[in-house]
Specification:
Distance between the termini: 38 Å
Structural class: alpha/beta
Oligomer: single chain
Number of helices: 11
Helix content: 25-40%
Largest sheet: 6 strands, mixed
Number of strands: 14
Strand content: 25-35%
Order of helices and strands: EEEHEEHEHHHEHEHEEHEHEEHEH
Shape: elongated
Length: 316
Amino acid sequence: MSSSPAIIVQGLRHTYGARAALDQVSFEVAAGEMFGLLGPNGGGKTTLFRVLATSLVPTGGEARIFGLDVVERPLAVRRQIGVVFQSPSLDLKLTVTENLRHQGHLYGLRGKGLAKRIGDLLERLGLHDRSSERVEKLSGGLRRRVELAKGLLHRPRLLLLDEPSTGLDAGARRDLRAYLRQLCQQDGVTVFLTTHLMDEAESCDRLGILDRGRLVALDTPDALKQKIGGDVLVLESAAPEQLREQIMARFGGPISVLDTSVRLERPQGHRLLAEIMEAFPGQIRAVTLAQPTLEDVFVHETGHKFRDDNRKSIVE
């Protein structure tokens, strides 16, 4: 990775009416890094993505890509970036090659140079035997590969992906992550992606966690989990507030209540669990004891579960 950041975001703000979609967000992404922005739907990820893609002017703050201000120099920024939106952008009635050829024309690519670039990408993405097929006949995973080829056709230095695994099965998600890693390691492309999927976030070099427009955590996935500093105990109870008070009185805190669960973070949680089960028989309906996950990091930093904008849990 080079010493000069690919992305610099400082004090970024954006509002929709009275609602703050981005609230003083600041971070940097190193060149050649695979950086993920994790958060629930409605948390501000797509707004930030649109700012970086130069399709939205922020209310305040600053965002630079390879030193170029995204507001002051959007055309120069667009020459440096490839963009894969969450919503499909392919013409289903055209073949794979026809979609890529039209994309190349938008960037001024023509003739043998364009044909070679299309051929190289189709080979690398495992699409060479599908080049003459209409996109409407392809699976979701293959269509996503064509989207990637479109975004990479003009050799961008930065690839922006909004929820890239949307609609893909587990196998297709693994293939996509492997190719993105190859782009970073072999081609030096910087990858910035937004996601609400924990397994996708785990694959990133570094991760920012965004909730309700605020960046609440920033580090490698492993470092974020290590900050919890122990096991995570989740106790299901018919009277969680009462159980919380009883555990606090006997074993101390901190302890939180989320819906019908009492949640604790403790070193050597298995020992404490045995004592709690013995102390409060009949009050606990189910127990989970595990090493911290990124979902636990989110709860630790925000005090609430990972939910979408309708406040309905998407991880339960």
